[in-house]
Amino acid sequence: MPITEHVVKNNSHTTFYLAEGPEDGPLAIFIHGWPELSISWRHQLPVLGALGFRVIAPDMRGYGRSSVYENHNDYAQELIVSDMLDLLDSLGREKAIWVGHDWGSPVVWNLASHHPDRCHAVANLCVPYYTIERGLDHTLTLVDRFLYPEDEYPSGQWDYMRLYEESFEEAIAPMDANVHNFTKLLFRKGNPELEGTPARTATSRRDHALFGVRDIPDVPRDGDVVTEEDLSIYVAALERNGFFGPSSWYMNHAANATYAQSAQNDGYVDMPVLFITAQYDYVCECAHSRLPEPMRNYCRNLTEETIRAGHWVAQEKPVEVNAALVSWLATAVPGVWPRPK
């Protein structure tokens, strides 16, 4: 079946989404992160759809053809979770399998912990539970202080988030000034040679730049992550909407931490959970650090997989990601596997 485009509106919000697979199939909703789009799941939708799942991938709040807002506080997690519940209602479903990546992961974790009745199971890539959805101050307690001594790297690899908070306009200005070059620089495969070294984001405030460079270089496109067509779709959307909305997701740590306190079941998640570590993701570093430890305590039915890829793991290593997802769905969530007619 071809991927189709849809729009759902209510009085306050518009969500654009892609869909694949039979309309009556078990529902799986894929939630992208910063600064991506629904097309970030272009390798996953056809595979799950062909297996008989109804697969949905929305443009999130602030992105693509969904609603864009002008205030930072319009991008708090509680509002974004509400968008997803409205989407679920519009599809006429009680529950879905939710899959997230990057900032999509906190959304999925919040759905699982606040609305377990709307989830069959959840899977996340790169960002583990009980981290950034509980605010930046909490996440800093998990920084690897051997790699990031506090006197030199007070915020560890999360220093770029402090740059957003302290100098938001300075942080997004280079991105808005050259979307094409910035997007090419961003969407790159993982580099195993950098394993065990500090992430470039650890000196963002010192450098007055998110990734250590204020003038975005014109680097070749990494064809192992994006095609020219993929790149043009990302660039067109980000040029149209700008980086204010996507980057405002970083400006709500206090509100998000307060929201996390209202999680059900004291924050424990009992449903099936899959977490995929990207071995060469050095910001969301889960292969060697303490970052995933709270998740292992709070997720009581947890499956973990590690894939040798960088942060854009679903685009860099789609076969491996799809295999991990399908294996987990078939073995850990067999009750929602598509049944023959």
Give an overview of the whole structure.
This protein is of the alpha/beta class. The protein has one domain: Alpha/Beta hydrolase fold, catalytic domain (Rossmann fold, 3-Layer(aba) Sandwich), CATH 3.40.50.1820. 35% of the residues lie in helices and 14% in strands. The protein has 14 helices and eight strands. It has helices at residues 45-50, 77-90, 104-114, 136-140, 159-166, 168-177, 179-186, 204-207, 228-241, 244-248, 253-260, 293-298, 313-316, 318-332, and strands at 4-9, 14-20, 27-31, 54-58, 96-101, 119-125, 273-278, 302-307. It has an eight-stranded mixed sheet with strand order 1-2-4-3-5-6-7-8, sandwiched between helices. Strand 3, helix 1 and strand 4 form a beta-alpha-beta unit. Helix 2 (77-90) crosses helix 3 (104-114), helix 6 packs across helix 7 and helix 7 crosses helix 9. The longest helix is centred in the last third of the chain and has 15 residues, at 318-332. It is globular and about 60 Å long. The model has no long low-confidence stretch (mean pLDDT 97).
Please outline what is shown here.
This protein has 14 helices and 8 strands. With 341 residues, the protein is α/β, with parallel strands linked by helices.
Which characteristics define this entry?
single chain; 341 residues; alpha/beta; Rossmann fold; 14 helices; 8 strands
